[in-house]
Amino acid sequence: MRSTSLGRAFVIGFFLTYMLVPLLATVAFSFAVRWDRTILPEGLTIEWWQAVTARRAFGETLVHTIIISLSTMAVCVLLVTPTAYWAHIRVPRAKPLIDLLTTLPFGIPGVVLALALLRTYARFGGAIVYSPGMLILACSVIGLPFMYRPVVNALNAVDIRTLTEAAQTLGAGWGTVLVRVIVPNITAGIVSGALLVFSLVFVEFTLANLLVGARYKTFPIYLVEFTRFDGRQASALAVISFIIAWLTSLALIRLTRRAGGVREEAIGAR
Fold it and tell me: How many angstroms separate the most distant Cα atoms in the chain?
């Protein structure tokens, strides 16, 4: 037992070290005056943070990215949740095919997807092809597997068929069953998938650069521009990106838990 505990502690410690050291090094580099002659940074400054946040493009690109990320997250939730539920209840034999289709985006590079969209929809004009809406749809494609798998796992963990039949016995329609019975029981899976999609889209560069570029500049594009001439400012932007994604994830989890608590209190009051 003791050797097992030590082995587990070693694996966890190695994993945390592997994940945290690059992040801490990026944070230190964003505050360093110089870090190219010694093993430790030479001096500390907030000049690089001030330089990147003082520009007007900082706020604009940040807002653009949050809009794209939240919109893509909403599209994936609204598309995947009812589809996965319907397949689970009505066409269980189609689940292997759906599983296969949802894995295809893993094998499609962003460049290939962007070029395919450009060639397919070029006939409709640049106003449609090179638009935030097209970027949201493209990001929804690559976010599909990250949304689908947590939702399916949550559905498999609950006796969905019994819940559905019980609700229908009481006179509930399909929409009511999904919104008021199924969703509250798979909230954890929906939130997990939504956070994965948000994190993925928030740092997506290839699709954003090819589909909208400077027309609707996003935060990853803004970050990459700084990597070309100053790594310290780029490091500051990378840390800001991580902090925003982390705070957004915490906010979504908090809102979900609060909504779940209010729902439980309402049920208890009844």
Answer: 74
- 253: phi then psi, degrees, rounded to nearest 5: -65, -40
pLDDT at res. 67:
93
Residue pair 161/181 in contact by the 8 Å Cβ criterion: no
Neighbours of 130 (CB within 10 A): 18
Q: Are 31 and 46 in contact (CB under 8 A)?
A: yes
Domain positions in the chain are: 1-45, 47-269
Which tokens belong to 257?
A: 């838990």
**Fold of domain 47-269:** MetI-like fold (1.10.3720)
Amino acid occupying residue 227: T
180/174 Cα distance (integer angstroms): 10
Q: Look over the chain and give the mean of its residue pLDDT values, rounded to a whole number.
A: 82
Q: What is the structure's pLDDT at 269?
A: 45
Q: Any bridge partners for residue 34, and if so which?
A: 42
Task: Indicate the residue type of 38.
Answer: T
Q: How many CB atoms lie within 10 A of CB 75?
A: 18
